[in-house]
Design a protein that fits this description.
Blueprint (H helix, E strand, L loop, with lengths): L11 H6 L10 H6 L1 E2 L2 E2 L9 E6 H6 L11 H11 L12 E4 L8 H11 L17 H15 L28 E7 L9 E3 L1
Helix pairs in contact: 5-6
């Protein structure tokens, strides 16, 4: 959309000046996304996949088979409910079934993407001319995402503020121990004992 409107300069001449092999440091797919009419108009700076991590030990404790992770949103919700527990018997939930950033920044669109696309919706209309967030499928995706907290209570109160790698104590990467299903970029969860990614 931005490239077609002329908002980004053609970088091809600058890349050619760098000589052969300059683009070898980038994966082919991100580079392809930066092209318009065969010309590169931007360089990928932060391209990542989203992965649903889960703690196998907590699956077992909740009576779930860690070798059979959820495959549908219905299964996901069922698992999240089973993983939301009062583990110390004081009458208060201290373990929640799911967590991901819900704040606008950083990266809400990145983390909400798996929801909206799997519901058959998108951010923009196919002609890229207007928002598609008012479609029935997009509204369904938003409702499911929001109701994980408001209706089903499988997300901890106040969760979703700030970057998990710097300020969110619930993040497994920071040693947080209260989330069982965690949606984040694939660079997270390094060296996390008992965690697996889908």
């Amino acid at each position: 959309m931005f490239f077609g409107k002329g908002f980004a300069k053609d970088l091809t001449p600058f890349i050619e000046k760098e000589g052969p092999g300059f683009l070898d440091a980038w994966y082919p797919l991100p580079l392809k996304l930066m092209k318009h009419n065969g010309k590169i108009h931007a360089m990928p700076g932060d391209y990542m996949t989203m992965v649903l991590f889960y703690n196998t030990e907590m699956f077992k404790a909740a009576g779930l088979d860690p070798n059979k992770p959820p495959k549908t949103w219905d299964e996901f919700l069922t698992y999240a409910k089973k993983l939301t527990r009062d583990t110390n018997g004081d009458g208060k939930v201290d373990q929640w079934g799911f967590g991901t950033l819900g704040a606008k920044s950083p990266g809400f669109s990145l983390r909400f993407g798996p929801f909206i696309w799997s519901f058959g919706a998108d951010y923009l209309t196919p002609d890229m001319k207007r928002s598609a967030l008012d479609s029935a499928k997009a509204k369904e995706a938003f409702a499911f995402f929001v109701e994980l907290y408001t209706k089903h209570k499988v997300v901890p109160p106040g969760y979703g503020h700030g970057c998990p790698r710097c300020s969110n104590t619930a993040c497994p990467e920071k040693g947080g121990n209260d989330l069982r299903l965690w949606l984040d970029a694939s660079h997270c969860q390094q060296d996390q004992s008992g965690s697996k990614g889908l």
